[in-house]
Amino acid sequence: MPNHIGARKLAMAFTVRLLLFSSLFLLSVSVFAQTNGSIAVGDFLTATAANSSPWLSPSGDFAFGFLPLGSNDLFLLSIWYAKIPDRTIVWYANRDNEAAVAPKGSTVNLTANSGLVLNSPQGEELWKSGTSVGVVANGVMNDTGNFVLQDRNSESLWETFNNPTDTMLPGQTLERSGKLSSRQSETNYSKGRFQLLLQEDGNLVLSTINLPTNFANSPYYATDTTSGTVAGSEGKELVFNVSGYLYVLRENGGKYNLAVGEVVSARDNYIRATLNFDGIFAQYYHPKNFTGNVSWTILWSEPDNICQRITESSGVGVCGYNSICTLKGDKRPTCGCPRGFSLLDPNDPYRGCKPDFIQGCKEDELSGTKDLYDVEVLTNTDWPISDYVQLKPFTAEKCNESCFQDCLCAVAIFRSETCWKKKLPLSNGRVDVSLNSQAFIKVRKDNSTLPIRAPQLPCPDEL
Fold first, then answer.
1. Ranges for the Bulb-type lectin domain (predicted)?
2. What is the average pLDDT across 165-191?
């Protein structure tokens, strides 16, 4: 009998241990299933603040899902760094140059035939990834930041690395005709005015775009990796390798490094290369382990001075018409209006400026007075290609007076005994301390307004 009781106790203890082990095993499998980055066909996410759990990569470094845009119940389907406070976005859904902004209650579904499909609460299709061939078996949110749709053989059918927006990550490449497009502003994710493109000739260029078309102006930065005296010297692809080096790989295997200098550890830092909304292409790093308030640090950027590098005959420059571009200490441009002008869009200083007065020969004539304008003098400021006449040799006083008396003239620039008279709209405005110039800007006086013309009465003969 005692042996029988002992056997029962031993069996019960074994059973308890087995149940405990099984529970732990199932728990670990469950946790793994939630964090291995794999998403099954039929899974979906809903754009709500209360239920915004994203699909995470295995390490939890990257997240795919909905991020709120401000406080207006709009969301952006995107991929972001999940472990840093500002949740920096590295990819976002867009269609026809517009960000796929989703209202609250929208869903993204992983489907077998159409890949990722984003629908509004009313069922309207807002965006879909699509697949060229094959049937989707599952999706994977990788630790590289790449979201991949796979078939049953784990072959890639579609991936975000092949459909980039404004950012590249280590492990990502751009083939010929591949490009990054800037967003319109820091908070507007629709297509902006700047583009990074690996051309068919192998040249990597930064250009402005004349929206809403895709017409590209002359590059303001180029690697010149085209065919030359050495066979195979043209660029084949832009490579951002896993160590954090960014270079153009040539056909002959040679490399053109976009930056020469130290490269931070990709093991200890998050690294990205982003075409910013203001046209600056820059590489950044952020420590993975940090305490306190830590932000992204710039490693390098191109171009050195975008205000001076962009001069467009068919575009508006960095800051839009009638604006002035000034370079900040971090090599990022800032835009402002001269006195007598105000922003076209108070919420977007990069869209240009408009005059706060009406200027023109007919308007000046109707005013009935000759004392219409003051002159604002700015140093080392220019709008290089807006002139319609050049006067030489001339003095600063004569240059000022000539513009003041000319009803077509809005601004006159004097430099090196030469006067350039310019009319509106002014383009490619910038500050350049090397100019040693003066700008004379005509500004309508506050008390000078156009008279209100009385309506013309019909002649008695016409009655």
1. 41-162
2. 95
